[in-house]
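Private note to self, pasted from the team thread so I don't lose it. Backbone tokens:
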């Protein structure tokens, strides 16, 4: 059971990374235009959002590896160690849903 849950999380992280790559590609394409539809400030802001999303995704991956792939770590500094796999999965799902909502909102703009 635990292995199946871990695989589900790995697949979700892989999908999230692929979605981020699509968003980054769209951003890079827009940033490379000489006459972008976006104001320079908006373009910079979106670039920061894309970079922050990548940091969050990497943080989720690191948390998963530290807690469930033999690292035994306690997640990020200042964050309590999740006590059970169910709690970890719920926490991970909430973070993934938040990141996906931010990506979807950015793609709609």
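Design output:
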């Amino acid at each position: 059971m635990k292995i199946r849950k871990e695989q589900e999380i790995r697949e979700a992280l892989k999908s999230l990374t692929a979605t981020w790559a699509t968003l980054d590609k769209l951003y890079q394409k827009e940033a490379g235009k000489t006459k972008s539809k976006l104001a320079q400030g908006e373009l910079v802001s979106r670039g920061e959002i894309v970079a922050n999303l990548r940091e969050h995704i990497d943080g989720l991956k690191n948390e998963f590896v530290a807690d469930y792939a033999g690292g035994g770590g306690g997640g990020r500094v200042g964050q309590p160690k999740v006590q059970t796999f169910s709690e970890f999965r719920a926490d991970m799902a909430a973070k993934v849903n938040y990141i996906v909502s931010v990506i979807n909102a950015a793609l709609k703009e």
